[in-house]
Specification:
Structural class: mainly alpha
Oligomer: single chain
Distance between the termini: 85 Å
Mean pLDDT: 84
Radius of gyration: 26 Å
Strand order of the largest sheet: 5-7-6
Number of domains: 2
Helix content: 40-55%
Largest sheet: 3 strands, antiparallel
Shape: elongated
Strand content: under 5%
Low-confidence stretches: 1-13, 288-297, 499-557, 636-642
Length: 678
């Protein structure tokens, strides 16, 4: 038989065909599924994109790195904080690559920095919809999409420029590819899933690997192929993960330290030191395990209930109990299912994701931010969707299914009311309204579950489920909408109306944003347009705000610094031939200046100012070569300026050998001119 040739009109590249299939849906599904998919995507787009520029440059630590990546391909590759490649950010560069490409395409602005995160969020919701549909069906997919879109941690992170947005997208995409691999038993899907996890590693290092035990287990148990081929698939996956995770690490490790930037967050300038120190074991066991940085957890005391404390509850707690209940119910109902049962595979996948990641977040004693909870949202959303569908099916066989579903809606609403009570001045009527709606839905469900009334009350029961879902989503939706209307500008943001605001390294405390959820005002102008042009020696009008009044800030951090306009103007006018316009005490102080001028700023000590670079001899060499002239000493927004021997030695030399400069500003930092100092 002669094969029919592929023509331009009949053939599509496989990746494009896969994306089309996600949006189109399966041909055997009713028409409403596509409409529901479009509706969920539209809701996510509204939540994540609307008024996106309200936070201006948000986390200036990563915004400055995005600017550098947009100016220098070398800085792009390394994930450097500045275009002159003095130091990298203390994370791998994949998230910087995404923002850097956007800055290159559209110029520097709040939109170009934050839009990639928002689009990553919309894509996450869409791919989660497709993944859940494969295991649990379209109804569960719609519910999962709604829960994911409205989770406050997701609304926060997908409107912010921390790496967690890309991390979540890559892990969800990896789960979707793994489900394809399980269904077909084909190694190419295994390799794709492993590649996506590898690039998640290049987004946030070891956190990406928290899902790997569950991924391996579900493939070994449920893949639709022989045991031998499953074992081969695991070997292929392991090798692929190592290659996808390690290629950038290997290249950086092989480049001599003198020919690349210092690796921010490390103690030796080594990327391996960062992976297994501050960003690895240091996160789990505290700074004593290696690496630099603050060892006090941001998220409160470690323990099994950490995810429900004042720092975490607004992020993720809303659907955590029903997700765990759904996991238990699903595994019990599928205990006699065949090995390749899709729903069983889904429960193992999302359940292992939730349990492993949740336990690590609960008990890690190093630096842990509550916004990490966004990584739990996909698993919680998938399990909630599956649980509702399981109870609905159980209702058709026994009235207890309807009763359990009714009790579940009421329980979620009551729990949401309890969580809302921690912010009593915020929308006080939401909790009671949610409980009232849930009670109405419960009564209708109970009536519709009575065997003699089930046939005639089928539509009533369906409407009751829809009403129950609305009641369950009401409380987190209120937090989500408030988060969407809030300007965030710190390294440790929290969603909602300001129940908590962890200080830099501190625990929970009173929030810095109004409990009424009112929108903050800017003291300056949100950034728009292209990277600033400082040839005239004056700070451009389109730079980040010189201070945010009323915005949520979680302590000293990347985003709440004020760039002194007089300082910016003076530095831009007097840069001369220097590579760095100024050296600052930390990235917290350097970021606003870099974004305001569009020029490289040396962030001494990196993120907090505590990294051991530059040493005094290096600083003197930079000055002697003319690469650096001005140095800021004291004040600023860094956490480590002058806090260790390296920084103290720098400060002592600068204050004794350099000339104090009166630049006419009112900032807390002191500017020194070190030209000619020895």
């Amino acid at each position: 038989m002669t094969a029919i040739p592929r023509t331009a009109s009949t053939w599509r590249p496989r990746p494009l065909a896969g994306l089309r299939a996600i949006a189109r849906g399966r041909t055997d599904e009713p028409a409403w599924v596509r409409a529901a998919f479009v509706g969920v995507i539209a809701l996510a787009a509204l939540l994540y994109v609307w008024d996106l520029a309200i936070s201006a440059y948000a986390n200036t630590y990563y915004s400055a790195a995005a600017l550098a990546a947009g100016q220098s391909w070398s800085a792009f590759f390394f994930g450097s904080f500045d275009a002159a490649n003095f130091i990298t950010v203390d994370k791998p560069p994949a998230a910087i690559w995404l923002m850097g490409l956007s800055v290159r395409l559209f110029g520097l602005s709040s939109w170009s920095v934050l839009l990639p995160e928002a689009l990553a969020g919309v894509a996450t919701v869409g791919i989660l919809f497709a993944a859940v549909r494969r295991s649990f069906g379209p109804v569960a997919a719609v519910i999962a999409g709604l829960v994911m879109a409205l989770t406050p941690a997701a609304v926060l992170i997908f409107r912010y420029n921390n790496p967690d947005a890309l991390l979540t997208l890559l892990l969800v995409a990896g789960a979707w590819a793994l489900l394809r691999a399980i269904e077909h038993g084909r190694l190419r899907w295994v390799a794709l899933a492993a590649t996506l996890v590898g690039f998640a590693f290049l987004t946030k290092y070891l956190q990406a690997y928290l899902v790997l035990p569950g991924f391996a287990l579900v493939y070994l148990v449920a893949a639709n192929t022989t045991l031998r081929r499953r074992l081969v698939g695991l070997v292929v996956a392991a090798l692929t993960v190592l290659v996808a995770s390690g290629w950038w690490v290997a290249i950086v490790a092989l480049i001599p330290a003198a020919s690349r930037p210092f690796i921010g967050g490390s103690t030796t300038g080594s990327v391996l030191d960062l992976i297994f120190g501050y960003d690895g074991l240091g996160r789990i066991f505290g700074a004593a395990a290696g690496g630099s940085g603050n060892s006090t957890p941001f998220g409160g005391t470690a323990g099994i209930l950490r995810l429900f404390n004042d720092a975490w509850f607004g992020e993720i707690a809303w659907f955590l109990p029903p997700a765990l209940a759904a996991l238990g119910l699903g595994l019990w109902l599928r205990r006699r299912a065949g090995r390749t049962d899709r729903a069983l595979a889904g429960y193992i996948l999302w359940g292992s994701w939730l349990v492993s990641t949740g336990l690590v977040f609960s008990f890690m004693s190093g630096t842990v931010h509550s916004y990490y909870a966004v990584a739990l949202a996909p698993a919680i959303a998938a399990l909630v969707g599956a649980g509702v569908v399981e109870l609905w099916r159980l209702r058709s066989r026994h009235w207890l299914g309807g009763a359990a579903l009714a009790a579940g809606f009421v329980g979620i609403a009551v729990f949401g009311w309890h969580l809302l009570s921690r912010t009593p001045d915020f929308a006080p009527g939401i909790g009671p309204a949610a409980v009232a709606l849930a009670l109405v839905a419960a009564v209708a469900l109970l009536l519709g579950s009575v065997p003699r009334l089930r046939a005639s009350a089928g539509r009533l029961a369906g409407a009751a489920v829809a009403l129950g879902l609305c009641a369950a989503l009401l409380a987190p939706a209120a937090y989500a909408v408030t988060t969407m209307q809030t300007a965030y500008n710190s390294g440790d943001p929290h969603p909602g109306p300001g129940a908590t605001s962890s200080g830099f390294g501190g625990g929970a405390g009173p929030g810095g944003f109004g409990a009424d959820g009112t929108r903050p005002t800017f003291a300056g102008t949100p950034p728009t347009g292209s990277p600033p042009n400082v040839a005239s020696g004056t700070a451009p009008s389109g730079t980040p705000p010189l201070g945010l009044s009323g915005s949520r800030s979680g302590g000293p951090g990347m985003g709440n610094a004020a760039a002194d306009s007089a300082l910016v103007t003076y530095l831009a006018a007097n840069q001369g031939s220097a590579t760095w316009i100024v050296a600052a005490t930390s990235a917290g102080e350097a970021g606003p200046i870099e974004l305001a001028t569009g020029l490289p700023v040396m962030a001494m000590g990196g993120f907090t100012g505590s990294d051991p670079t530059p040493r005094l001899d290096q600083l003197k060499a930079f000055v002697a070569s003319g690469q650096l002239r001005f140095v800021l000493a004291g004040g600023g927004n860094g956490g480590g300026g002058g806090s260790d021997a390296t920084a103290s030695a720098r400060t002592a030399w600068v204050t004794s050998a350099c000339t104090l400069v009166d630049y006419g500003g009112s900032g807390t930092s002191t500017l020194y001119d070190c030209a000619g100092a020895s």
